[in-house]
Amino acid sequence: MNILPIPLKDKVVLITGASSGFGEDAAWLFAQEGCRVVLAARRIDRLRNLAAKIQDAGGEAIAVPMDIVNTDEIDNMVQTTIDLYDRIDILFNNAGIGRVGWFEQHEPDRDIDLLIKVNLIGSMRVTRMVLPHMLARREGHIINMSSVAGLTSAPLIASYAASKNGLRAFTDALRREVYPFGIKVSGIYPGPATTEFGSHVHGGNTYSSIRSRLGPRLSSEQVARWVIAVAKRPRRTLVIPWWYQPTVFLERYFPRLTDWGSYLFSKIKHKLD
Ligand code: NDP
């Protein structure tokens, strides 16, 4: 970890999933640090409003419509950024969707394929397009938004956990691959936070009832502030809030305990459903 924070002024930051939640708040905070932010997602009206808000506050932002399952739109997003700024200093891979519920009830196209395409393959494809530009300059920072579900694999979120564990594996492998060439790669692993995420999750009722039992939630702004902190002082992994760290420790070193807790949870939940 860097001792002195990296100044973010004038950095070009590409953010996927910037139309709400962590992406929107991080975009605002990056802009306040003096970064030039490129906002990407499907809801272009939201992005334009955010870009206007940033510009009104004296910052620099552009909105680019992009569906992360569409390779041409990814290419267009990256090319637009390069044409405009000639570089990408920070890539924040943040776009994501969720699915909660018994796996046997997952609808294959929507709840399995799409989830993996958006949460894992999408971020990998964006990274693949951005990386050559960073490697050419021997500089850059890729920040991947995984989840605590990317370090622990809980029942009822099998597809989501698979996508976020996959993103963690990609993050770790890529970091080791590109570190010698001056590129940093970080993984962020938040617990539940208050954003629109729940309202987009299929199986939202189950999601709400589980989430309400998981204790206090992070705010979107808190997570966004951590993203900025990681950009200033790049680190391998960030698990937030801290009280999820013991859960991650248990999963890693005492998986039987996690299995046992999950077994009880699944049995009780199945009876209730
Ligand atoms: P939001 O639903 O508020 O934001 C999700 C963002 O992803 C939106 O900007 C959405 O934009 C974008 N997105 C979704 N699908 C696509 C797509 N096909 N193409 C392009 N963009 C897409 O949720 P959060 O801010 O909470 O989530 C951000 C990230 O954080 C996600 O990866 C999520 O998995 C992760 N996370 C969330 C947690 C939480 O509790 N909220 C906890 C841990 C991790 P649009 O719909 O306009 O395309």
Account of the 3D structure:
The chain is of the alpha/beta class. The chain has one domain: Rossmann fold (3-Layer(aba) Sandwich). It is 52% helix and 16% strand. The strands form 2 sheets. It has a 7-stranded parallel beta sheet with strand order 3-2-1-4-5-6-9, sandwiched between helices. The chain has a two-stranded parallel sheet with strand order 7-8. Helix 1 links the parallel strand 1 and strand 2. The model has no long low-confidence stretch (mean pLDDT 93). The structure holds NADPH dihydro-nicotinamide-adenine-dinucleotide phosphate (NDP). NADPH dihydro-nicotinamide-adenine-dinucleotide phosphate (NDP) binds next to helix 1 and helix 6.
In short:
The protein is 52% helix and 16% strand. It has 273 residues and is α/β, with parallel strands linked by helices.
Proportion of strand residues? 15-25%
CATH architectural grouping: 3-Layer(aba) Sandwich
Strand order of the largest sheet: 3-2-1-4-5-6-9
CATH classification, class level = Alpha Beta
What share of the residues lie within helices? 40-55%
Ends distance: 46 Å
CATH superfamily, called what? NAD(P)-binding Rossmann-like Domain
Number of helices: 10
Task: Give the count of structural domains.
Answer: 1
Q: What overall form do the CA principal axes indicate?
A: globular
Question: On the 0-100 scale, what is the average pLDDT?
Answer: 93
Q: Please outline the major beta sheet.
A: 7 strands, parallel
- Number of DSSP strands? 9
Radius of gyration: 18 Å
Secondary-structure class: alpha/beta
Q: Which runs of at least 5 residues are low in confidence (pLDDT < 50)?
A: none
In N-to-C order, the SSE pattern is: EHEHEHEHEHEEHHEHEHH
CATH topology: Rossmann fold
